Amino acid sequence: xxxxxxxxxxxxxxxxxxxxxxxxxxxxxxxxxxxxxxxxxxxxxxxxxxxxxxxxxxxxxxxxxxxxxxxxxxxxxxxxxxxxxxxxxxxxxxxxxxxxxxxxxxxxxxxxxxxxxxxxxxxxxxxxxxxxxxxxxxxxxxxxxxxxxxxxxxxxxxxxxxxxxxxxxxxxxxxxxxxxxxxxxxxxxxxxxxxxxxxxxxxxxxxxxxxxxxxxxxxxxxxxxxxxxxxxxxxxxxxxxxxxxxxxxxxxxxxxxxxxxxxxxxxxxxxxxxxxxxxxxxxxxxxxxxxxxxxxxxxxxxxxxxxxxxxxxxxxxxxxxxxxxxxxxxxxxxxxxxxxxxxxxxxxxxxxxxxxxxxxxxxxxxxxxxxxxxxxxxxxxxxxxxxxxxxxxxxxxxxxxxxxxxxxxxxxxxxxxxxxxxxxxxxxxxxxxxxxxxxxxxxxxxxxxxxxxxxxxxxxxxxxxxxxxxxxxxxxxxxxxxxxxxxxxxxxxxxxxxxxxxxxxxxxxxxxxxxxxxxxxxxxxxxxxxxxxxxxxxxxxxxxx
Length: 545
Known about the structure:
Elements: E1 21-22, E2 31-32, H1 40-51, E3 58-59, E4 69-76, E5 86-94, E6 104-109, H2 120-127, H3 130-135, E7 136-141, H4 158-161, H5 172-190, H6 199-212, E8 218-223, H7 225-236, E9 241-247, H8 257-280, H9 282-285, H10 291-307, E10 310-312, E11 315-317, H11 319-329, H12 333-347, H13 379-390, H14 400-413, H15 418-422, E12 446-453, H16 459-468, E13 472-481, H17 491-503, E14 511-514, H18 517-529
Parallel strand pairs: 6-7, 6-8, 8-9, 9-12, 12-13, 13-14
Antiparallel strand pairs: 1-2, 3-4, 4-5, 5-7, 10-11
Helix pairs in contact: 6-7, 8-10, 8-12, 10-11, 10-12
């Protein structure tokens, strides 16, 4: 798919549908308004009142450490009309462990869209070495519409949240109806709010939070979707971006339909790598002694499961289940091989282990366990669609038949997952975006960190963001497996990222590290825990960034 221009970025201005440019002349400066706009002074005065908020910090909950504090501030629902409706932004912090060595604040985002970030300071405390914890107040927040930040809902039932659907001629009509119904329910339930749940507005919230905290600049660590949020912040507020680590990166020009399609495109070279890996170990695994034979073994299993699901410990696996599961599993050749071995045993009527199929499990599990009672059960999905559809509605065709054509074509081009990625989504029936998409093209300093074999944001995606961020350097982990790199126990990777956070100095040139057995094992552990990289708390719903 060709990268394409998304048009000129709008100038920085509150009153003309633009970012609220919070002035940098003082630490907590009032928002600067467009002096050419008639309402600029009124807008500036209104935003001044937001900046002057004083968070009422308190212990987040009885089970959390005393030093982990939470508060709530107000932000405008619509930055074009800051005097209108306000929504909550739930924020948290763990203050620097050595105030005398403090450099500033480090915000973070765990991914999504729809991922809760309030508990990220707790995760960051585990991820960062003590020297880095001395440098920063660790700041977390639930993005607007998510978690405790005025959570949105579409009143979706679990069946409606299952959205990665394979194309089939006989079910396509039902899939179109599902996509239309989800968009309709979202509009009916939260149509006045959802147009403002966007990445651009979340970036504006970050800058308002910066001003409330009394900081001239922010440092930031974002994973997956969080890399796009960080990149948008650097585009809207390049002068306020300090040390930005963007881990497992989104290609801005492909947000968001193209990024979902990356899952199919990126899986094909990983699949080819897997067939070679398994063939080299044919004596141990018995899947074939050439890549072509391994390939044939896999697709024969899919065909058999299409005819009659293959049961493993009572769990049926259709051909679509196998393709969907293999899409993510194949980025770790050993786990993928062990899974296919178990499927082959079951297909032959032999006892098989569901545990060894764990790498295939859970192509979609909406929501997360342990969510706060006040958070709607479909909040992650509702906020996901708000961003994925609302950030760039121009990326989504309004013609349902175009999705049929794309799904058929892409299943041929990318047989493992092409139809899942390209078939119809609710965005086909979503309202138009309130703003044009953000074209990322700036010189703010940042560090892009990327595994070579990442199932969610493949290597070319990270390379694209690096190219867009002219002031960035990139760390590539050759042979690195998994989604989410830092920390992984690899001295090259961890040393480069930590050094940047401590000194603010980017490497003189791009860095290439080589994965170790230990660092890839750490990636597999993260996958099995099914959590945001480095986070012990929010559960990752597969099929998210």
